[in-house]
Amino acid sequence: MTKASILIPPTYFAVSHARLLGAAHDVRIFAGAARVTDPHALDGIELDETLPQVLPFTDRWPIRRREQVGALLWGATSRRIRRWAPDVIHQHFAYGARAAVSAAKRARRPLAVTVHGGDAFVPLTPLRERGLRARPALFAMQREVRAVYRRADLILAVSEYIAGIAVQGGADPARVRVHYQGIDTDVFTPPEEPMTASVRRVLFVGRLVDAKGVFDLLEASAALVEEQPHELVFVGDGPARTRLESAAQASPHIRVAGSLPSSEVRDLLRTAHALVLPTRLNGRAREAAGLVLLEAQACGVPVIAYDSGGTAEMMNVGETGWLAPEGDVESLQARLSESLSQTASSRADMGRRARAFVVEHRSLTASARQLSAIYEEIRR
Closest Cα to residue 185, out of 101, 67, 343, 300? Predict the structure, then answer.
């Protein structure tokens, strides 16, 4: 498996399938640069990071600079991949893929590429939508994504929505297939004891940016908190964090927890009454899938989301959670109010249905099994 850079947290998806596949396959992850602060994230998986091998003195650099330089070392990464002589190369993201494409071409190995969201929109973004200084970078990314589409034996999309976007961007429909990213339902599990907290906890997990709808959620929560007391917790980091922390100082029911390891996110999910993911249109892009919706439901937590992109594919609407029209804060508030009005019994029933949905349709075990079959298919 290859990826331009590995940052854990938050990108656990890059290693979750690799860990499970490691029982039946010899798996190695190649990256130009990496930052892994969760000591258990790579249990049983070997990470081959190019940057410290080529430039050993870079370990103290800021991660953004390490990512930039690591990307420039794609030729070295390609050579390291070829020396390992894989049977199949699986690249995550259609940009930052030069090392994988080069290795697949030179070693004549099959290449699968998973498009996760933003990468699928790159070919659809006109250069005029960027400033003059940003246009060369966008142009280079467009060339790279198109080259990946031409070279890949199979293009895996994380949702039907993203599959459609990839085809619009030039991917051959015959080589595009939906492969839902799975959730480890042995890790993300409901609490052993039912919740007994007197104040219900509403949780957001994701990047703290306006496009994730954090301020819509803030507004909806503020309008309800007096009549329907609850705690609103934001987990994640990003440019909106400062403003959210200011809101927390003025409103005691708000808490900003920052970025947390996966195990701590799971523990918080188990205490949540509901998880909310109100992602909005961001330029041309919408929510690709929303893995956190699956993590929450696997923990028996009902979910609320804007009907954006692939979010509807991540739940059984009306049975395991609610959708609100994208950007409609009043509807979001109504759905949140409906959730907070649930009796303990109705909320528990919805939580059981949520768990069952993920176990049956979106488990990591099933996803890894499908991925293994895909590898066998394209290496023939």
Answer: 300
**Judging by DSSP bridges, how do beta strands 111-115 and 230-235 pair with one another?**
unpaired
- Residue 34 three-state SS: strand
Tracing tokens 């990314």 back to the chain, one arrives at 141
Structure tokens at 299: 């923990």
Supply the DSSP symbol for 73: T
How far is residue 241's CA from residue 42's CA, in Å, rounded to a whole number?
28
Quote the pTM value: 0.92
Token pair belonging to 46: 């070997």
Number of other residues whose CB lies within 10 A of the CB of residue 373: 10
Residue 148 belongs to what H/E stretch? Answer: helix 135-151
Alpha-carbon gap, residue 322 to 312, rounded angstroms: 9
CA 363 – CA 297 distance, rounded (Å): 11
Token pair for 370? 């499908």
pLDDT-based confidence at residue 311 (cuts at 50, 70, 90): very high
User: Hey, how many other C-beta atoms are within 10 angstroms of the C-beta on 329?
Assistant: 19
Which residue shows structure tokens 């069952």? 356
**Full DSSP string of 226-255:** TTS-EEEEEE--STTHHHHHHHHHH-TTEE
* All domains of the chain in start order, with CATH: 2-182+363-378 (3.40.50.2000), 200-361 (3.40.50.2000)
Q: Do 34 and 58 contact (CB within 8 A), yes or no?
A: no
Half-sphere exposure of 339 (CA within 13 A, CB side): 35
C-alpha dist (Å) from residue 25 to 18, 258, 368, 373 = 9, 36, 11, 12
C-beta of residue 296 within 8 angstroms of C-beta of residue 124: no
pLDDT of residue 37: 87
For the chain, the 3-state helix, strand and coil shares in percent, each to the nearest 5, are 45, 20, 35
Q: How far apart are CA 87 and CA 24, in angstroms?
A: 14
CA neighbor of 170 nearest in space, from 148, 154, 153: 148
State the virtual CA torsion across 225, 229, 233, 238 in degrees, nearest 10: 0
Radius of gyration of the chain (CA): 21
Q: 22 pLDDT band (50/70/90 cuts)?
A: confident
Q: What is the pLDDT of residues 153-202, one digit of tens each?
A: 999 999 999 999 999 999 999 999 999 999 999 999 999 887 666 789 99
